[in-house]
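2024-03-11 09:14:02 DEBUG pipeline.ingest accepted 1 chain
2024-03-11 09:14:02 DEBUG pipeline.ingest length=184
2024-03-11 09:14:03 DEBUG pipeline.predict start
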Amino acid sequence: MDVDEQFRSKKCVTNNKEYTMKKQGFTLIELMVVIVIMGILAAVAVPKLFGMIAKSKASEVPTAAGSYINMQDAFALERNELGSWTEIGYSAPGKKKHASSYESDNFVYFGTAVNSTNAKTSVTDALKIQNKAKLDDCAIGGYWSMDITNGTGNNQGNVAYDTKTSSAQCEGLAPAFKKLAKTL
């Protein structure tokens, strides 16, 4: 058998019809090119995907803080003082852990108690949201917190909110949180 005969198309006869069988396939180089292209696409897409996952988890932060602000505003307008989580009827997302802390899958929510000595003035870290896992570049234990101040004189019942974060990376994950800050 000569070499040319080995690579020729084979003929197949079925029901008196002749078919030509062709050997087809991909070369090793073609397969390698496809694998390299897929690797490049994966290298570009995977970091973006993880960043988007972190942002979607952090989207819980401004929503929870917005609910707190609405409830505190309503309470302050009605009573001319600041209220604790229980007084304003606020419950953070997740399960109650202690009297003033809740825990969700991604965050722990803390509240500073409002008592008779500071009820009409201000509360530092009235709401503090701390992440339980690393979210993108926001380290474990990174936080978003809010200080509140009740107005005085003609502004009494109007509440000011000052927001802060543990790092620029945490702030970047939930930029809407910074927008919740307001002054009297």
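2024-03-11 09:14:41 DEBUG pipeline.report The mean pLDDT is 84.
2024-03-11 09:14:41 DEBUG pipeline.predict end
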